[in-house]
Structure formats: structure tokens, C-alpha cells
């Protein structure tokens, strides 16, 4: 999270974009799309730009179109990062207020709200800041899940990475993949997308045909992974994708976990 890539290509936020609606859910303002009666749900945990990012909501609508109820909570309580380069903006202060521990607790409240609706299978994808939240969440016994670099992985894991990612370079992700493949009881998958940078899954330029193609490919991979595992057959499932890919932890920083270190993520406490 200390990498400048986290703050590059900020989206133009829109409170009215998307096919869904904004409602209070689990104590948070939440973008909700898809059938309210679906027993299958996906939580999208945003990057630092929050839940009003058009590409993120577009992704939520796409997932909802395949039969899932999709929720995108406002984990920043109306205070996403708008302009990282604003001289009056203090990223350290912002991260102290919007820390991943708080995000973790808020996500648990959303999960509880989904369960109270009768949802039987829950998947989650985290982007950048959201990826770190998901890493913590995946080690929760409440979910019976663990994250990529956690030694006790308990769910199928997919890692979609970017070739150009200072926080989680391909070499590091491949190491994670090797550790995961050693756990034969759980399926794992590592895929590095060439020519794309950290955040490519939801911060792509819609006018760039190549960028759109890569993002859509990662979206399809995510949907296929959710369909292949858990959702519909398993009561609890977390998908984790890297570098803003979508299949689970998009654009997340894995530094400091599982004995693999690269760079620094001190701003997030890791």
C-alpha cells in the first residue's frame, strides 16, 4: 500500500453510476446489484478510491448478471481518496482512520448481514487496500478460510497478477503459487497478465482496447474460479486476486506474509 501505483489513475467517482442501488447494509452504505433472492453472494472490497468507482460498479453488475447478489460497501464512510497529489492530503493520517483492521470488522458485519438474508455461499474479491483486508479476513475462523501466503490455506485460491507491479512482482507471486501447490488438498491457480500494471482490473482506461481486453479476461477468470469452486457447492469461499485482477485479491500487497518479503507495506501495519 505504500507504492505510488496504488494511487495512480484515479477514477472519476460517480454516486449514480451502475445498474444497482445504494442502500444501508451491514451498517454501511452499500452498492447492491443482482437478485435480492439469490443464495450466492460476492463482496467486492474496493481500493482506496472507494465504492463509487464506475469500473468497480460495472464489474459488480457483470458478476450480478451471472446470478450472484453483489455488494460493494463504502468502507471509507464517504471519505475515499480523491486526489493523492493534493498538498493538503496526508496519506498517513488517512490510513490511520481507514485502517485494515476496521475494514476487516466492517466486512464481517456485511457477511453477517448476508447470512441473515439466507445467503448460503459467499465469495469475496479485494482490490489493493481491499486485498489487504481480505488477507486478514481469510484467516478468520469464522470464515474457515485463509489467504494466499497464509500457512493454513483452507479454500481454493486463485492469484491473478500484473507483470508490472512493484508491490507484488511476478517472481513473488510465483513463490506464493509454489507454496500453494504444495497443499494438494486445495486447488490453486496463478496467472500473470503481461503488459499490465498494478490496478489494471478496475482502473483501466475504457478507451484503451488492450487494457479493456486484459481487464475483461481477468473478470472472466474470476467468474470461472468462483463457479468452479465453492459458490453453489461450498458454504464459505474466498477468492483472492492480486494486482487488481478480480478473482480474489485484486491489486493487493502480500509483503510480510508466509516468509516472503519484498518492499515495504508499513503504512498498513504489515
TrEMBL record:
<dbReference type="InterPro" id="IPR029058">
    <property type="entry name" value="AB_hydrolase_fold"/>
</dbReference>
<protein>
    <recommendedName>
        <fullName>Dienelactone hydrolase domain-containing protein</fullName>
    </recommendedName>
</protein>
<dbReference type="GO" id="GO:0016787">
    <property type="term" value="F:hydrolase activity"/>
</dbReference>
<dbReference type="Pfam" id="PF01738">
    <property type="entry name" value="DLH"/>
</dbReference>
<feature type="domain" description="Dienelactone hydrolase">
    <location>
        <begin position="29"/>
        <end position="229"/>
    </location>
</feature>
<dbReference type="InterPro" id="IPR002925">
    <property type="entry name" value="Dienelactn_hydro"/>
</dbReference>
Amino acid at each position: 500500500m505504500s507504492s505510488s501505483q496504488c494511487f495512480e489513475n484515479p477514477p472519476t467517482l460517480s454516486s449514480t453510476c451502475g445498474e444497482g442501488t445504494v442502500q444501508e447494509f451491514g451498517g454501511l452504505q452499500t452498492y447492491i446489484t443482482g437478485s435480492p433472492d439469490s443464495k450466492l453472494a460476492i463482496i467486492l472490497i474496493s481500493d482506496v478510491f472507494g465504492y463509487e468507482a464506475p469500473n468497480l460498479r460495472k464489474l459488480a453488475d457483470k458478476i450480478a448478471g451471472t446470478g450472484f447478489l453483489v455488494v460493494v460497501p463504502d468502507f471509507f464512510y464517504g471519505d475515499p481518496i480523491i486526489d493523492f497529489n493534493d498538498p493538503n492530503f496526508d496519506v498517513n493520517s488517512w490510513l490511520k482512520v481507514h485502517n485494515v483492521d476496521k475494514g476487516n470488522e466492517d466486512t464481517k458485519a456485511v457477511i453477517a448481514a448476508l447470512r441473515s438474508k439466507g445467503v448460503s455461499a459467499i465469495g469475496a474479491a479485494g482490490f489493493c487496500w481491499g486485498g489487504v483486508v481480505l488477507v486478514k479476513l481469510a484467516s478468520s475462523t469464522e470464515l474457515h478460510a485463509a489467504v494466499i501466503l497464509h500457512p493454513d490455506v483452507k479454500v481454493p485460491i486463485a492469484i491473478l497478477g500484473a507483470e508490472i507491479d512493484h508491490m507484488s512482482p511476478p517472481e513473488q507471486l510465483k513463490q506464493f503459487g509454489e507454496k500453494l501447490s504444495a497443499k494438494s488438498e486445495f486447488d490453486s491457480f496463478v496467472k500473470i497478465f503481461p503488459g499490465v500494471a498494478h490496478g489494471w482490473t478496475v482502473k483501466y482506461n475504457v478507451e484503451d482496447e488492450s487494457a479493456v481486453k486484459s481487464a475483461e479476461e481477468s473478470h472472466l477468470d474470476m467468474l470461472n474460479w468462483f463457479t468452479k469452486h465453492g459458490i453453489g457447492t461450498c458454504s464459505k469461499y474466498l477468492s483472492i486476486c492480486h494486482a487488481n485482477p478480480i478473482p480474489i485479491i485484486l491489486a493487493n500487497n502480500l509483503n510480510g506474509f508466509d516468509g516472503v518479503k519484498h518492499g515495504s507495506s508499513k503504512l498498513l501495519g504489515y
